Amino acid sequence: MKDLAIAVRIGSPKSNYIFVKNTFDSFIEKLKNCDFKVFISIGDINFDVKKLIYDYCSKYPDKFLVYEDKKNKDTSWAESINKAIEISDDYEFFAKSHDDIILKTDNFWELFKSQLSEINKNLGWISFTDIGFKLGNFNPSTRPGHHIDYISGNSWYTGQIFQFNKFPIHWYKANNFLDSLHTKTNALLKKFGSNYLLNYPKPIKKIQNYNLDMPLKPVYCHAPFNHFVIIKRSVLNKIGKCEEWGSKNALLVDEDWGLSARLNGYPNIWIPNLEYIHERLNIYAGGETRSMPQINESRITTEQKFKKKWGFNSKPSVDSLNFIEREYRNTLLTWSLNRRTFDWDYL
Length: 347
Hints:
Elements: E1 2-10, H1 17-30, E2 36-42, H2 47-59, E3 64-69, H3 77-86, E4 91-97, E5 101-103, H4 108-117, E6 126-130, E7 142-143, H5 148-151, H6 155-158, H7 176-191, H8 204-207, E8 219-221, E9 223-224, E10 228-232, H9 233-239, H10 253-263, E11 268-278, H11 292-310, H12 318-327
Parallel strand pairs: 1-2, 1-4, 2-3, 6-11
Antiparallel strand pairs: 4-10, 5-11, 7-9, 8-11
């Protein structure tokens, strides 16, 4: 079998030429000894980005393939990804990737396979480390799930979660004066109809001095984010295709797929020393994904469908944790209950 199929949906008018180019170039550079192919679904994107994609397909026909080219209104995100799964069944591993990530680790594939060879068990989704915090962004590498510091505490809002648990509160924010000045200035720019907003003054130098609490080797995790994650194809076949929420974005697909893996007995893991960066909008403290407007459009209906399937909200209430423990007892789905995000559970 071939090594790795990478499914990428490039379907937003906000898809960025530079981001897409950086993503593709990082695949070529960091996956040199991997027999990979990028399976690309194109939506409603601008001419320059579309031309860039087809240029890569022409230059690297064995590495890039457009299998779908149609407007967003004609397809859902799940439909596109499931089609990629169907046409890539001759690859040992399947990855789903955003069009705005950059693989940063040299010899990524060789190191990935080497670490997997030391893990004597079948795995669900495999996540890697988003090092966007080095750029001043708040970028956790895995979903917080049912961890008690997320459900019962305020750790996501303060940023003191996962490897950032020893950082100060709101570590991704500038001092009060700069934060207020930035907010007021951009509010005025929006009021006068400007299309250009000021970048946030991210406290990068301060962040470099904070005490990062990284796991030392692969650890179990609740569920992946969609940025760049890999799963063995034989496991994916058993847990099933992407859930069809009927939306044009990937909201809660990662949470659902992560839960499905664990429900079927396949633990999700995070490999900390393999790194990437998920590009974010620089006009906000901590950064923000470019697809937030599209996500907000379908958030309510997607959350409703998620709860109908699982019996609890994507961020369960404290009371719902008892339901999860009762209804899903004797499964791996209860793994993150009563555990903090930084209570590393090593393989």
